[in-house]
Specification:
metal-binding; mainly alpha; Four Helix Bundle (Hemerythrin (Met), subunit A); Znf_C4-type_bac; Znf_DskA_TraR; zinc; single chain
Length: 112
């Protein structure tokens, strides 16, 4: 998949219980599992307070987990895949690359 594929196309129907929603949940749960494991490794490796790079990575992982949890809540609420900026569907390609995306590419670029 290319970056262009992630910016065009339409979001699938993520109706709770549907096939697309199940696939999205699997991607999100896998993302959650991976990030949780990475956090555990960082915590086990040593003192986060004295290693700025490790602390920054820890914070990034924690924030990503919050985004994943928010995406799971959107999925449960039936609004997963809808851009929080413009209300339009987020392209499936973008959600495959970043399953916890809250914004379409255009709205994300505007936020910067």
């Amino acid at each position: 998949m290319t970056v262009n594929d992630a910016t065009r196309g339409t979001a699938g129907g993520y109706e709770p219980g549907g096939a697309a929603a199940r696939q999205a949940r699997e991607r999100l749960e896998q993302e959650r599992h991976t990030r949780t494991a990475e956090l555990a490794v960082l915590e086990h490796q040593g003192d986060l307070h004295s290693d700025e790079a490790a602390l920054a990575r820890f914070d990034t992982l924690r924030k990503t987990l919050e985004e994943v949890d928010a995406a799971l809540a959107r999925l449960d609420g039936g609004v997963y895949g809808i851009c929080e900026g413009c209300g339009e569907p987020i392209p499936e390609g973008r959600l495959e690359i970043l399953p916890y995306a809250r914004f379409c590419v255009r709205c994300q670029q505007r936020r910067r």
